[in-house]
Design a protein that fits this description.
By secondary structure, this protein is an alpha/beta fold. The chain folds into 2 domains: about 140 residues, Rossmann fold (3-Layer(aba) Sandwich); about 180 residues, NAD(P)-binding Rossmann-like Domain (Rossmann fold), CATH 3.40.50.720. Helix content is about 40%, strand content about 15%. It is built from 14 helices and 12 strands. The strands form 2 sheets. The protein has a 7-stranded parallel β-sheet, sandwiched between helices. A 5-stranded parallel β-sheet has the order 2-1-3-4-5. Strand 9, helix 10 and strand 10 form a beta-alpha-beta unit. It binds NADPH dihydro-nicotinamide-adenine-dinucleotide phosphate and (2R)-2,3-dihydroxypropanoic acid (DGY).
Length: about 325
């Protein structure tokens, strides 16, 4: 097996891969261009890639040997899955192993934005602090408030677990309707499913945990901000483009909503200049899954899936298991 890896893997995952494959690892933080990826994929049958690598029909047609793409991320909006499936290319991702790390970061952003921690830190560093004062940096308490979770999947549920401990009442939206899942969510978190308009109207805090898909692009824009409470705090650790970033700048700068905590941005690594000027936003550079344990687990899962596929077992983390038969046929050629 010949594999291209577009980022550095943990030592353990790299060793496992090296035992079964000839590996070409790109070790720089600067992303490879499409031409560079295509050139390095020549003669290779698998790619281990990151969320900045765009995989679509154009690239796949230039890489006829490629049979498997292991995305070291749970979100796979960087991959046109239908293009891969129709060419018998199997796609895997890394679900489940990053739920706690991402929910922790999202909760950190919620607390930071609601209690103005980023702003307070800048205030102290700037030497502006004159002493204790009753109204200094007054923020919002979580206990007893309503939290709206957009996307109640693995990470949404991990976030809900943390929210329960802080005394938040949970409402949520999700894509599909399933009575038994909704009953489970009611039982586990006393959480109620609502529609997006109602979630925007009722929530004191909103946290986004849905994937970026054509249906969720700009799911939260000016119409949704118009419905939110003026002291609403919005957190996004999903994908930047789920929010219309220009509308968010407008909502924050006109105090239509109170604050935001953002780990993801519409045009990463670019951040809207309007956001950079605002005190009521706390930002992190897409580090939701960035704990040592989680990054190691993501690498491990990516490599396990790849090995499993080339050992003729459809990996559990296949995004398009419907491509399995075609993948196996191509493998045998
Ligand atoms: P899951 O698939 O487990 O959950 C996604 C949830 O979103 C599901 O509940 C799904 O509904 C719901 N959903 C899908 N479409 C819509 C919609 N149109 N409206 C409302 N809800 C919708 O994914 P994960 O929890 O594992 O991951 C979620 C996302 O988080 C990833 O796709 C990724 O983009 C992002 N992420 C970001 C990280 C970071 O570093 N900042 C780290 C990890 C993930 P249903 O249950 O009905 O299918
Ligand atoms: C993901 O997994 O989708 C994140 O964005 C990176 O860990």
């Amino acid at each position: 097996m010949n594999v291209l890896v577009t980022g550095i893997l943990s030592e353990k995952a790299a060793q496992r891969l090296n035992q079964i494959a000839t590996v070409d690892t790109y070790e720089s933080d600067d992303a490879l261009s499409e031409e560079q990826v295509v050139a390095r994929l020549d003669g290779k049958n698998a790619l281990v890639c990151l969320l900045g690598d765009k995989i679509d029909a154009r690239l796949l047609d230039k890489c006829p040997d490629l049979k498997l793409v292991a995305n070291v991320a749970v979100g796979y909006d960087n991959i046109k899955v239908a293009d891969a499936t129709s060419r018998g290319v199997l796609i895997t991702n890394t679900p489940g192993v990053l739920d706690n790390a991402t929910a922790d970061l999202a909760f950190g952003l919620l607390l930071s934005a609601a209690r103005r921690i980023g702003e307070s830190d800048r205030f102290v560093r700037a030497g502006k602090w004159q002493g204790w004062s009753r109204d200094l940096m007054l923020g919002q308490e979580l206990n007893g408030k309503t939290l709206g979770i957009i996307g109640m999947g693995r990470i949404g549920k991990a976030f809900a677990k943390r929210a329960q401990a802080f005394g938040l009442k949970i409402i949520y939206t999700k894509k599909s309707s399933d009575q038994s899942k909704e009953s489970e969510l009611k039982e586990s978190f006393d959480a109620d499913k609502v529609d997006l308009d109602s979630l925007c109207e009722r929530s004191d805090f909103i946290s986004i945990h849905c994937p970026l898909t054509p249906a969720t692009r700009h799911l939260v824009g000016s119409a949704q901000f118009a419905k939110m409470k003026s002291d609403c705090v919005l957190v996004n650790t999903s994908r930047g483009a789920v929010i219309d970033e220009a509308a968010l700048v407008e909502a924050l700068s006109t105090n239509r909503i109170a604050a935001a905590g953002l780990d993801v941005f519409e045009r990463e690594p670019e951040v809207s200049p309007g956001l950079l000027k605002l005190e009521n936003v706390v930002m992190t550079p897409h580090i939701g899954s960035a704990s040592q344990e989680t990054r190691d687990a993501m690498d491990e899962l990516a490599i396990s899936g790849l090995i499993s596929a080339f050992e003729n077992k459809c990996p559990k983390n296949a995004v398009n298991p419907e491509a399995w038969d075609a993948f196996v046929k191509r493998l045998k050629k």
